[in-house]
Amino acid sequence: MAALVASAEARLERGGDVSLGYYLERPAFLSVALVACSPGGRSHPLPCLLPE
């Protein structure tokens, strides 16, 4: 779990998005997605909704 969190944190700091999924009990599946706002870059800039 610590490695997943560290990897997700590093990806978000670089302006990347994170998407993870876990099977809870069949057929239940938990999906978690974090989308980074990146007003200055990458291929499709996404403006931040809140001021820094």
Describe this protein with a few key phrases.
52 residues; alpha+beta; 1 helix; elongated
Describe this structure in words.
- Helix content is 23%, strand content 23%.
- It has one helix at 2-13; strands at 18-23, 29-34.
- It has 52 residues and is an alpha+beta fold.
- The longest helix has 12 residues, at 2-13.
- A two-stranded antiparallel sheet has the order 1-2.
- The chain is elongated.
Task: Output the radius of gyration.
Answer: 14 Å
* Total beta strands: 2
Helices, by number, come to 1
- The class by helix and strand makeup works out as alpha+beta
Shape: elongated
Largest sheet: 2 strands, antiparallel
Give the % helix: 10-25%
| Average of pLDDT | 80
Order of helices and strands: HEE
Contiguous runs where pLDDT drops below 50 for at least 5 residues: none
Strand content: 15-25%
The end-to-end distance, rounded to whole angstroms, is 29 Å
Largest sheet: spatial strand order: 1-2
Describe this structure in a few short sentences.
The protein has 52 residues and is of the alpha+beta class. The protein has one helix spanning 2-13, and strands at 18-23, 29-34.
Task: List strands and helices in order, with pairings.
Layout: H1 2-13, E1 18-23, E2 29-34
Antiparallel strand pairs: 1-2
